[in-house]
Amino acid sequence: MAARTSANFSSCFTFLKEALVLPTQNPKLFTPVFLLIALPSFLVLSTNVLFVQPLSMDMAELAIKLQTTDPSSAEYRMILEELKHDVTQLILVVVAVELVALVLGFVNQCVGFFAASSTYSGDRYSLPELLRKAMKGNLKGPLITIAMVTVLRVTYMALLGVLIYSVMQVQRHYLIKVLSVQVLLFVLCFLAFLYFNVVGMVSVAVSVGDTERRGIRALRQAWRLMTRVRRKEGLVLVVAICLLSIAVSPVNLVAAAYTKNMVLGLCLLVVYALLSGAEQLFYFAAATVYYCQAMDSKGEAMDYAYAKIPTGEANC
């Protein structure tokens, strides 16, 4: 009994082990995919260090000067124009970088999931071959699913923000009673958000592996797999992704806070971008392996159930 329990426990982590070694089965594909995935993180972080932070500091200094300057003076108008210029420049930089990162994020998810799916199924493509195959095949489905999951994720985050705001607006005499309920509600909603993120990843894997499922149908299939077919493995996947994200994030905090040496700070950002790329690549591989194994177990369960249906031939 104990041996069986131990075997069942270890089987819950088997797909994670397979996801870890999956990129090693096709290095010529996963090496450029890994670098491509790491690029948006480095782009956003380096832009923040090189442009956003200096502009923000200049704007803060100008705002302080503006408060101590006579509004009727020429210096006031000059500072105001300089402040407007910095604000415009900051907005343009942030919008441009975010748009580029968003597009690259869509591309990276498609490439990452196609790479994981093709490699797990036994194909050994190079990156150009994979891109040609994706362009000729089922590219529309994953893009629709990624867009839908992104919209739902942003909507969910907005609702969490509203919930936080409502907690902050609680009156003092209602604080103890209402705050405890709202904090509990926020924690539950946040945990559901973490779970939904993983369901969204699996839904993209579904749309890559199944050309007939995209958007809501892919999300529904992912939810069914994680809540009915392989619940234990689904929970392990959620916990693994959350813990890995927590483990990598301190490097970003250290890099962002280290301003004494720009070169060292950028080196730390490179390290974080590479770790972030490896982290996301593992997400894609883990979600893909989970989906494939869940579908295999679902098929085996259906075959077993079909075999148990009495046909009456044995009684003849």
Which SSEs are present, and which pair or pack?
Layout: H1 2-11, H2 14-21, H3 27-67, H4 74-120, H5 127-136, H6 140-168, H7 175-209, H8 216-229, H9 231-257, H10 262-307
Tell me what you see in this structure.
This protein has one domain (12-296). It is 84% helix and 0% strand. The chain contains 10 helices and no strands. The protein has helices spanning 2-11, 14-21, 27-67, 74-120, 127-136, 140-168, 175-209, 216-229, 231-257, 262-307. Mean pLDDT is 79; it is low at 1-8 and 300-316.
In terms of quaternary structure, the protein is single chain
Q: How many domains make up the 3D coordinates? A: 1
Helix content: over 70%
The radius of gyration is 25 Å
Number of distinct beta strands = 0
How many alpha or pi helices? 10
Q: Low-confidence stretches at least 5 residues in length (pLDDT < 50)?
A: 1-8, 300-316
Give the overall average pLDDT.
79
Keywords: Membrane, Transmembrane, Transmembrane helix
Transmembrane segments: 29-52, 90-116, 143-168, 174-196, 234-257, 263-292
In short:
The chain contains ten helices and no strands. The protein is mainly α. Keywords: Membrane, Transmembrane, Transmembrane helix.
Name a few traits of the molecule.
316 residues; mainly alpha; 10 helices; 84% helix; disordered N terminus; disordered C terminus
